[in-house]
Each structure stands twice: as structure tokens, then as C-alpha cells.
Model the fold of this input.
Amino acid sequence: MSFLHENFLLTTELARTLYHQSAAPEPILDYHCHLPPKDIAQNRRFKNLFEAWLEGDHYKWRAMRANGVPEAHITGPMDPWEKFHCWAKTVPHTLRNPLYHWTHLELRRYFGIETLLNEHSARRIWDEANEKLQSPELSTQGILKKFQVRAVCTTDDPVDSLEYHKSLVDQNIATRVFPAYRPDKAFAVDNPAAFNAWIAKLEQTSGLDCAKFEGFLAALDHRHAFFHSFGCRLSDHGLEAMYNGPCSEVQAAMIYDAARAGRPASPAHVQAFGYCLMLHLGRFDHQRGWTKQLHLGAIRNNNLYLMDQLGPDTGSDSIGDFPQARALSAYLGTLAQEERLPKTILYNVNPADNYVFASMAGNFQGGGIPGKLQFGSGWWFLDQLEGMRWQINALSNNGLLSRFVGMITDSRSFLSYPRHEYFRRLLCGMLGEDVAEGALPHDLEMLSNLVRDVCFRNARNYFGLALPPE
Done:
């Protein structure tokens, strides 16, 4: 049987029918990613396969380091071909890592290249892909059109001017591009230098005085409204674990004043301040009908040498083992008691928390909103076949798979859209296996509707984004 054949992961006839007739035709709503809006607004054309594939992909960087590639050939000054050649030599060593599947799916879906990538085929693939990258079909906007991406939600700091989002509104391209509000730097009261530098930008962009805590909250709300005016309907938080409160407004103001005066907050005060601020941000989301995304459980910047040399998001993050349930319950419960709990997606990066998060979501459903609380897709280290299967099973056993808002790329690369195909094939394969075992009825209409809903329609209905007519 050929590698990555047309029925890859589709082991039953029903799975093949579900995928080819129901899943594959559905468009994509990529509601969480790290694509640079500048690249979309300027309709960037990549000069070569390094720029398109390796420039910011820390998944590949980690594999290359594990294969003994010197850092100069990964993130350093070596020329693009040399870096790509090092990646090509690494690829055969990634067998059974999802990178092996992703790499060859991407070569096929973007460039029509079915040759296996290795050091011997590298030059031929490099030349062929680089030639095809000059086609308008493989510009950034061309890629979004090619993969039927109806909408992209980028990840943006509240102090961002959103100038490139404005440019995209003016261009009126087929794919809608929306910002998502990610205020992680607003919590850094333990690092007054960084915190106050960021506050200065917040004051500049909001036009409001942040000398006091009340002004700080007003400025965050002002930016929240500004993002809303650009179609933003999602916020996002990357936390080790939910902050552990409670904290009064008076105490939060005292912690804020101390940080503004250059005095770093203690670990206990970081938790208290964070909890109070998260409540306010949750209320903002509820007020404007947004969805809150909570990305929980990663331990970041483990390699301090790499952090010093390269900065964050360069491949030295991993799964953490933080207690999650009690603080998360308290946070969601407080907002629910106030009747100001927004739609919320819970993502975990530690598979040990799958059933914690899936069952936690069930505590706070209601309000007439199908799937108001979501157990989010397999994220980061879990967006591979085994991790996605675990997530689907935990969700199915504790909630309603039929209301799931589906997959995200969570990627910095425009060449990552086959990850949606990967997920869709797995989903259809699992459903086909269940029917073959007698665990689900062979009801094609019911199963087809579930597949279409999870692939696109649930996300379209859930987020309330201003999408173009179908």
C-alpha cells in the first residue's frame, strides 16, 4: 500500500465515504493561529522553501536539534539552502513523529511533490518548490484561497495598532482575517521593568492614563472595544494554570501601584492580581459576546540559554504538570454566579488533564448556547494522531462531540493547513471504526451531519464572526 494514499487513516468504506463526501469539501475556519497579519496584508510571496517552511517553525527546530544539527544551521546565520538541507537530512529520522506525516502532506498539497524528502532528494525538491512558490496561488492570500479558509483569527497584543487588519478590511479579500485579544503582558507585575514598558504602550494606544488600577482597567476595556470594532470575537490567554484568588479590588490596586513604582510582586501577589484581572477580562468578553480561550499547562522557556540567545517561542517549551482543577473551577464558577461567564474553550497541553477539562466544561453549560463551554482540540504537543484521538474520546465520553468547534492550526506557518485534513481523516476513521464494531448505527445522514458540523459549521455558528456569504 502506498504512503499517504488517498484513503490514509480511512480503514473502512464508511470512513472513506464520510471523509471524501462530507469532511473534505468543508471550508476551514482557523480560529486560533499565530500567522503574521502583515504577511497576509502584504500578500507575501515566499522567496524559497526555507522562508515558507522553516523560518518560524519551532516544531522543526526541535527535531533538528534532537538530530544534532548545530544552531547556526537552524536559527543562525547560515544561508537558507544550507538550513533546508539540514532539515532534509533530519526528516528520515522523524519516522513516527507527526512531522514526517505533516512534511509529506505539505509537499503534496502545496507543491504536488510525492517524492520522499531526504538529503538526496533535497536539491530537486528545493528547486521545484521554489519555482512553484512564485505562483500567485502560493502567495499568502493565494494559500488561504486554495485551502478554502473562510476566516483566520490571529493572536494580537492589546497594544497592537491593528494596522494590517485595517489594510485587510480595506482590501476585502475572500478570507476574513480577525484579530484575537491576547493580554498576557498585562499580568507581569513580578517584572516591573517589562510591565511598565508595556503600560506605556497601552497608555499611548488607548489615550488613557494608567497611573492607577482603575485607569489600567479602563484602558484594557478601551482596547477590547477597539478590537471588537475590527470584528474580533475571541480573547486568548496562555497560562501555566488559572490564577488562584480571590483578590479584592483594593488589594489588586495595591499590587498594581507597587509594580508601577518598580517593586516586583511576590508569587502570592502575582496569583491574586492575576485572578482579579482575569475576572475583569472575563466580564469584558461576556459583555461583548466574545469567546474566551484558555490555553493551560505549558511550562515555557525551559532552556534559559536558548531564551537568552533567541527569545521566547523558539522551541524550549514543554508539557507542565500543574494542578488545574480547583482554581479553574473557582474562576469559571465566580463568573457563572455573576451570570457573566462568556463562551469559553479550555485547551490543555498535558494529556493527564483530558478528563479534568472535559468534565469541567460540563459543569458550566447552559444559557441556551449549544456547547457554551468547549473542551478544545488537541493542542501543541497533542495535535497529533494519538493526542487528537485522546481528546475526541474524552470529549465524547463527557460531553457532546456533535457540538465540538473542531480543529485549529495554532501555527506560525502558512504551510500548516493539511493539519485540518489530518484531523478530519482521523475523525472519519474513528466514526467508521465505531460503526464497524456496532458501537454506532450505520446512519449516513446523521454521521455526515456530525462530520460537517465538527469540521466547520459548529465554529461558524459558535463564534459569531462576520463571515462572507457562502
About this structure: The first helix runs from residue 13 to 23. The chain has two domains: 45-137, 143-463. The chain has a mean pLDDT of 97.
